[in-house]
Amino acid sequence: MMQTALLMLGVGIFAGIAGSILGIGGGMIITPILTLGMGLNIKYAIGASIIAVIATSSGATIAYLRDNVLNLRVAMFLEIATTIGAIVGALLTGILDPKYLYLLFGCLLVFSGWNMVRKLRRGQEVLQRVEPDKIAAKLKLNGSYYDKAEMKDIDYQVENIPAGFSVMFGAGVASGLLGIGSGAFKVMAMDTFMKMPLKPSSSTSNLMMGVTAAASATVYFFNGAILPGIAVPMALGILGGAVVGSRIMQVLPAKWIRIVFIPVILYIGLQMLFKGLGVHF
Amino acid sequence: MADKQTATSKEMLQVESVIGRILQVGVIFSAIVMAIGLGLFLITGKSGYPGTMVPRQMGLILQGTWQLKPYAIMMLGVYCLILTPVLRVVVSIYAFYKERDHLYVAITTLVLFILMVALFIGVHG
After folding, report:
1. pTM of the model
2. Which domain holds residue B57?
3. Tell me, what's the ipTM?
4. Could you tell me which of B26, B49, B50, B25 has the C-alpha nearest to residue B37?
5. What is the pLDDT of residues A77-121, one digit of tens each?
6. Do A233 and B38 touch (CB under 8 A)?
7. In what way does this protein cross or attach to the membrane (chain A) (predicted)?
8. How remote is the C-alpha of A115 from its chain's centroid?
9. Nearest-by-Cβ selection for B114 from A58, A80, A213
10. Quick check: B51 contacting A, CB < 8 Å?
């Protein structure tokens, strides 16, 4: 019992640090450890991973809000798309074959990974157009953040709002239908499509994930998918890890985060493509 | 234009620090509740319930918490944690209102509304 608690605490700290730096939920790390490593039933693993997403989000954004990296307007505006998407996804369960969604999002993630490699090569992080995007200006989505690695305020613009909104809707559908946190999609929508710098993308994704996950978490909570002996030490570890991770993220150069992010996003993308093609391993 | 820009970011900074503080209190509170439950569970070695049973009805959880049953306290902490993102949305509405940003009061209220619909569908679906 003590062993399980300590193990989950350790797993949580690791997942919290990694998840908060990249802006993805802990689910990708937590689920395989619980199912493959500990032989836990998938139902409980999903329950634990949805708690992990919330813990990562809440732990990370405490620090982010104080440090002003997050873009609250972008978060709330896009949250409309994700939450509606999540409802549509939940309603489509059993109607739409998840296969196509896996294929679509697998392709998108691989495209996004490739796009990130290009961005890395060009070394250009911040979008600065002479003519700001009209929709972005109207919705006051352009923002600025203080980059601790570069020690300066960085003003940035966003564009392609309809595309970002659509991808967010898709991310919501995916999380409702496939039961995944879809943090990678959220970062992709902001970074790849809306051209938002990686750090605000990551921390905004963290906030949004928590809000989206809260809706489905209640369902899991009341249908008995939460095992307190596992979820509680893990959540405590994640909260601590996420606070530390979000501090680390702020001092890391965006380029390094991107270097870590690319293999992760390619891995998730390929995994989804294989799932869509019916290949399991 | 430049003046307007700084005013907006200054306001936003203030708004975000208010949200940050309230959220911090919420998150730390749920962490403390979870830690107390876990501590009791590890020290006593008992969940407070027969076998592998986990209390999941709110009434049962509150009753168990009152009786200091470890699993009940742990579940209460988890539930508080689940509510922290919802708390954030609620506080954001207030913050945008203080900032007199009516557009974002409307947008954030819409998010809260959709969230409530999702919760409703979740409970009844």
Report:
1. 0.85
2. 2-124
3. 0.85
4. B49
5. 999 999 888 888 877 777 777 788 788 878 888 887 887 787 777
6. yes
7. Multi-pass membrane protein
8. 18
9. A80
10. no
